[in-house]
Amino acid sequence: MNGSEAEKDYLQSYQPGDYPSVALTADLVVFAVSGGVLQVALVRRGSHPFKGQLALPGGFVGPMESADDAAHRELAEETGLDLGHLPVHIEQLATYSAPLRDPRMRVVSVAHLVLLATDGTLPDVTGGSDAADAGWYPVYEILTGKRTSLAFDHSLILLEGLNRLAGKMEYTTVGSQLLPGEFTLTQLRTVYEAVWNAPMAPGNFTRKMTPQLEDTGKKTRAAAGGAPAALFRATEGHIHPPLARPRGQ
Questions:
Q1: Do 163 and 179 lie in a common domain?
Q2: 230: CATH
Q3: Which of 73, 143, 167, 207 is the most exposed place for a label (fewest CB within 10 A)?
Q4: pLDDT tens string for the chain (249 positions)?
Q5: Rounded distance, CA 90 to CA 33, Å?
Q6: Are residues 32 and 151 in the same domain?
Q7: Which domain holds residue 208?
Q8: pLDDT tens-place string over residues 187-220
């Protein structure tokens, strides 16, 4: 018997039920900045467990889906946000596999970090599928307990999503993914202040960031009493030396 025949016989006799069942979900941390505040898209659960509580959008991965495909599908179903038609940066955040993180059964979640580019106006979100409602919520109000805690371990996932973004913004231009393709230094500084939840000195920020950006040669229209501002694009280079994240943030 050759190797391929032996493997075929092995697979025919293999019994998946001999091993504990583990379900797979995909969850999404979707960030956007509006009014100088970092916001996250959350849904209100329409069914048990944690019925009525806020949670990150997400759900179970289908038998013929990848975790990435499920993330796109679940976000569209639960919030109406279609990642295929929005200016977004998306990356896998981490895998969460604590044995008791879901009271129903052993569930492992692949979490995704999504940065949504806006001009300050947040797109509408509408609850659908098993989400009773959906909305945008200030991240720091959620994490400091000024609003109700999130279902499952979603507060941890949200915190780690924030830490991933805040840390990468020290040495990359990833924060620009929360803005349109062309932006002013003031707009970019507003993003940093929203994510780091702290003010930035304008002069120092300009000196640090300007070498990392491409000047488009274009300017904004001057506001009444003001001067037009230069428009920039992000580059792929690293910020060196890194920006100093405010202490305690």
A1: no
A2: 1.10.10.10
A3: 207
A4: 566 889 998 888 988 888 888 999 999 999 999 999 999 999 999 999 999 999 999 999 999 999 999 999 999 999 999 999 999 999 999 999 999 999 999 999 999 999 999 999 999 999 988 888 999 999 999 999 866 789 999 999 999 999 999 999 999 999 999 999 999 999 999 999 999 999 999 999 999 999 999 999 999 876 666 788 999 999 988 888 898 888 755
A5: 16
A6: yes
A7: 174-234
A8: 999 999 999 999 999 999 999 999 999 999 999 8
Q: Are residues 149 and 195 in the same domain?
A: no
**What is the pTM (predicted TM-score) of this model?**
0.93
Residues 210 and 149 in one domain: no
Instruction: From 137, 154, 152, select the one nearest 28 (Cα to Cα).
Output: 154
